[in-house]
Records
---
Amino acid sequence: MTAGKPAYYVTTPIYYVNDAPHIGHAYTTLACDVLARFKRLDGYDVRFLTGTDEHGQKVEQSAEKAGVDPQSFTDKVSQNFRELSKLLNFTNDDFIRTTEPRHRASCQALWKKLVEAGDIYLGTYAGWYAVRDEAFYAESELEDGPDGKKIAPSGAECDWVEEESYFFRLSAWGERLLKFYDENPDFILPPSRRNEVVSFVKGGLKDLSISRTTFSWGIPVPDAPGHIMYVWLDALTNYITAVGFPDQEAEDFKTFWPADVHMVGKDILRFHAVYWPAFLMAAGVAPPKRVYAHGWWTNEGQKISKSLGNVIVPSELVATYGLDQVRYFLLREVPFGNDGDFSRKAMIGRMNYDLANQFGNLAQRVLSMIAKNCEGRVPQPGTLQPEDQALLDAASALLPELRTEMDGQQFHSALIKVWEVVGAANRYIDHAAPWTLKKSDPARMATVLYVLAEAIRRLALLSQPVMPDAMARMLDQLAVDPNARGFEALEAALEAGTVLPQPQPIFPRFVEEEAAAQGSGA
Ligand code: MSP
């Protein structure tokens, strides 16, 4: 741990390398990136982990289809996920691949602990398996599909599997899991998801098959030739591998485990909120503090699927609307935890109204008035009036409120709160009308512009986690020292007389091509 700083550990799911990165991957990792950035700015020692899930039948089959061996296949596709981080300006501190030696050692050590605890036994699995989900299903969960196929609730096709397998005694963990959920009411969020998990566990747990023998692309089970570990046991273990497991005395492990948040999509909650804490408790390792399950995006009202050809590609979104615009939209548009719809209209609305009109225009008006009327220097304020102080106080009061929202992963509420103050600043400028004061009361004009510039500085500091580039540019325009942009800088204030650079617009408006063409023809 960095001296005196509290620790914060946030993780994304590790992504299957059978697929190109899409909006789902971008969304999960973005949420984690914003938490990580917020906590760093707020003085925490942060560990932010993402990576790729590279074993199992699904990846093996994808490699076969591509005509390459699984290792070369995963080497190549894993790279696409590293590039996603660069593209979206994600600040993960580590990138784990389940094919790394550190991970194999960690999985095998965890396995041995489960054996020692008496929670693993050898049997035969005979039942349904969906390769797409890498999940076992009970017959009662399945529906009949075309050609006599069995279909899982996720829509994935299932195969009948019969093979020798090691089992984890999950059935013995039901009561202990329920007690754990009870004692840790915020372990699973949002609450609706928690209720689903609790009723699933109350419905009774079956022992879980945790090894496979009919293919070989995975981590070998110790002392059991022919068996490889079930890919979810392998994958979940990444969260402890990355902080040094099996060395539980490792500095990183002691500092960062248990993780503060495992961020996941709603489709993979059961693995994280039922199997994972059961494995850990059985091995005598503390479970994570929280699993947060977010919702799914649709595209213009339609379910996103490769077969419909409506997959949203992050690089295309960024090229069309701009990086920070996309980051803002994804977190502002939908209450975090709910499903949401991506529509071009909504995206452009947020970009033009919230960003260009409300925030961008505010900054642009204030900075150009300062450039023109105050010799391009931070103006010297006079005595503050109650309305001046009210605006500055409203901006400062945001920090504790945002801490609460971030600790509950309520990104949309955090942004709504910031925009309430953006709205207050716009009302303040309209009411104070500094442009009318230039002749009549230049001293008051200077005060008003100072108050606005200072309010913008605070709003920009607080908006950095969601829009790091745009806010860096806004803070540059206020000549804020790049090394003094943590939240402790909220206590400071702009210094009158500081020379400011020439103002530049921060948030362009989105101009529809047709509209632009018409405009130029008129
Ligand atoms: N490999 C497992 C996770 C193992 S973690 C120990 C896995 N990988 S995945 O590549 O399929 O994960 C995709 C992530 O993207 C999941 O969190 C999933 O919920 C999310 N999404 C996939 N499609 C999505 C949308 N349409 N909308 C939002 N998120 C979605 O699962």
---
Amino acid sequence: MNDVYILGIESSCDETAAAVVRSGEELMSNVVYSQIATHQPYGGVVPELASREHLRAIVPVVRKALEDAGHTYETMDALAVTKGPGLAGALLVGLSYAKALAYALNKPLIGVNHLEGHIHAVLLEERQNGNREMQFPVLALVVSGGHTHLYLAERKDAGWIYHNVGHTRDDAAGEAFDKVAKLLELGYPGGPIIDFLAQHGNPNAVKFPFAQMKHRDRNPQNRHDDDRRVDFSYSGIKTAVLRYVETHDMHAAIDQRRRVLTERKTPTQEEVLAACDRQTLDLAASFQRAIVNDLVSKTFLAAQAYSAATLLVTGGVAANSELRSTFHDAAAMQGLPVYFPSRKLSTDNAAMIAAAAYPRFLAGEFAGQELSADAALRLR
Ligand code: KG4
Ligand code: ZN
């Protein structure tokens, strides 16, 4: 089989990204333009601003990805683009651009599910490291700002098929990191800064109990008969943090921190640390410990229930240091291999989109000009 070069384009949320991947196994280039500075003042992604920023960035980002890879538009075998899930307006920018480019270049176009992309970030790097064999069934935890989903994956022809065996009933884990960081005035996005601050706090200072999700999902769309399912819920812990802040009179310290940090436009992690008292650091560390323990214990519960042979953990929150070390320790104890993407490929990028497109390229699954964005696309 000849080498296949795929140009991936990703614009589902607040990162404009393009990458070139060879045959789903070699990262040739990976360009990510992050809009963090644009959204930072609002403490979350503002959809209208995201679309505008994507429009501004997409052409130079794609050009740079080709240039870094030492390639041109002509040497690409196919284009791949995220078709969903994500913000509708943001998705449309990448999708329209990729469609126009594919049409002009007369190259095949492949529409990719963003969630499958996150899973392929792991596979790409494992193949790159010489690991080509994964034992099935594979259980994948996709944990990001928009998702906390467990998928049981099986192989089908050149690609994989997925069964959703668990999901969050409310907030995603990354969303909880972002909301708690906003509440404590630690900056945006919340995950990386809480990850850093938690290393300076006592994770046992505050106890956050987690409900086991035994009742049925109230959303009829999500009802499943399989009683082995393992669901998550992260809106309760956010409220528990708020209650802790109120009962421990932390508002003055939070206001003070806001004043100090707004003076610096983009404060460094060290500057945020300097603006935190012990109580805040302990709260951040305890919050992170609670989320990590819940994610790890429920994933292992599902792994046991579905006799998984391999675990994959991916998505923005997979960049979390404590999540990584806790998963590695638990996996070693249970004798179950667990794989993460590198930190760079944990958060949104286009290399994962180009990698996920490769089996679809082999299967000839090309999109027509009618390809459209689906903000609520599911993974199957
Ligand atoms: O996958 P991603 O880049 O975008 C989505 O598809 O949502 O994930 C972004 C999310 C944000 O909520 C961010 O706070 C979180 O991932 N995140 C982290 C870390 N780095 C990013 N959460 C915890 N620890 C981190 N180190
Ligand atoms: Zn993502």
